[in-house]
Structures are given as structure tokens and as C-alpha cells.
Amino acid sequence: MSTHFFSDTAVLTGRSLKHVTRSMDTIITTALTPIAMMLLFVYVFGGAISQGADSGTYVRYMLPGILLITIASGISYTAFRLFIDMTTGIFGRFQSMPIARSGVLWSHVLTSLVANVISLAIVVGVALAMGFRTGAGVGAWLAVAGILILFTFALTWVAVIPGLSAKSVTGASAFSYPLIFLPFISSAFVPTQTMPGPVRWFAEYQPVTPIVNTIRDLFTEQPVSSDIWIALAWTVGALLVAFAFAMVIYRRKIS
């Protein structure tokens, strides 16, 4: 590893972030689409789903799921940008320069983290405008931020795999569709108890539900249940597996 790993990664991350800020498609996909979903669920379906609760209460209920959808939507661009860099030969040019090889890959990962944090902040701002309120303290907010950043980090490394190995642009970004859909079959929008047997079983044991429940408990100042450990186990497990596979593929690509 180059002794200039951190400076190399910082420069490459700056380059990647410039591409993000110049792409309106990225901003629309990662921020406006989840916001549109939130508006639709609150002001169109919210009355029926929340059974008469005020819009602010339902925003607080559904916001954790919307935040996870925001992340799942945003990381598809990591795969897309990686695929473009691989197919246009930019990776090859970087490898011929005296820079840390892993810095090229880490720049995409860090760009994903920064871009998703911005998108999450925008979504939370809109939720506040829609009536979202919480008495959660600084510690609870930091815990929510930590969970969301860890979830983003894990999904970003998942996105690296198709970004490096896909055969087409569509294949590089299409993997995110199931991830975006996953919160809809969870406790994100309705209690799992309202679902029929097989669907309820899936909703209760898939990884999104414990993450949503943990964030919701933190927002509503409820005691955090054992879901937090299940959420961390799912997230850290996905991160470690995805990181290992991504690095194996990356080494093969640059060897």
C-alpha cells in the first residue's frame, strides 16, 4: 500500500464527488424519489394506513423505512460510477500512476457515504416540514446516524461487486431494485402483525425490520429492544462478506 494512501484517496474522492454534484440525475434519484414516496404515503395512503392518526405521527412511523430506501436508491450510483470507470479505462490509467491502488476503490466508497449523508439530511428536512417531531436527545440521534452510516457502508460494498463485475450499465445498477423494494415487506410502513402468515414471517425475519424497529424506538424515545443486536449482526455480516468478495474481484481486475 502506498504511503500516500490517505492523500491519494482524498484527491480521488474529491474527483468523484465533483461528478456527483454535476449530475442532476443522481440528486433526483437519491433525494427526490424517496421524498415523493413519503409525500404519497402520508398524504394519499396515510389516512387509511395510519387509521386516523395525524400526518406527523405517521411520518415519524414511516421515516426509518424511507431513510433506508434513500440509501438503497443512492448506492446504485456507486455501482454505476464504478462500471463506467472500469469500462472507459480510467482504472487502468490510475493503476499506471504512482498512487495507492486501493485508493481508487475507496474513493468510490467514500463518495457514496458523503452523497448518501447529504440525501438523508434532505429527506429528514422534508420530513420535519411535513410534521415529523421527536424528543430524541443527542445520543439517540447519534445512534440513528451511526446505524444509517453503517448500513450505507455495508450496502456500498455490496454495490461495489456488480460495479466491478457487471457486463452492462443496466446490470451494474439493477441489483439495487430488490434492496429498494425490501422495506415494503417489513415493518417500515405497517405493523407486521397485519400481514398474512408467510408474508409476516418473511417481514419479521428479514434484515430491514430490526433496523427499522431500532431507529423507530430511538425516535420515539422507547427502550431499544434486542432488535438492535439483530440489526447490527445483519449489517456487519453483510459488510464483511461484501467487502471480502469485492476485494477478491478488485484484485483480479487489476492484476
UniProtKB/TrEMBL annotation:
It is a multi-pass membrane protein. PROSITE patterns: ABC_TM2. Keywords: Antibiotic resistance, Cell membrane, Membrane, Transmembrane, Transmembrane helix, Transport. Residues 25-253 form the ABC transmembrane type-2 domain. The chain crosses the membrane at residues 27-49, 61-84, 105-132, 138-160, 172-190, 228-250. GO terms for cellular component: ATP-binding cassette (ABC) transporter complex. GO terms for biological process: response to antibiotic. The keyword Cell membrane applies. It is found in: Cell membrane; Membrane. It comes from the Bacteria. GO terms for molecular function: ABC-type transporter activity. InterPro entries: ABC2_TM, ABC2_TM_bact-type, ABC_2_transport, Nod_factor_ABC_transporter. PANTHER family: NODULATION PROTEIN J. Belongs to the ABC-2 integral membrane protein family. This is Transport permease protein. The lineage of its organism: Bacteria, Bacillati, Actinomycetota, Actinomycetes, Pseudonocardiales.
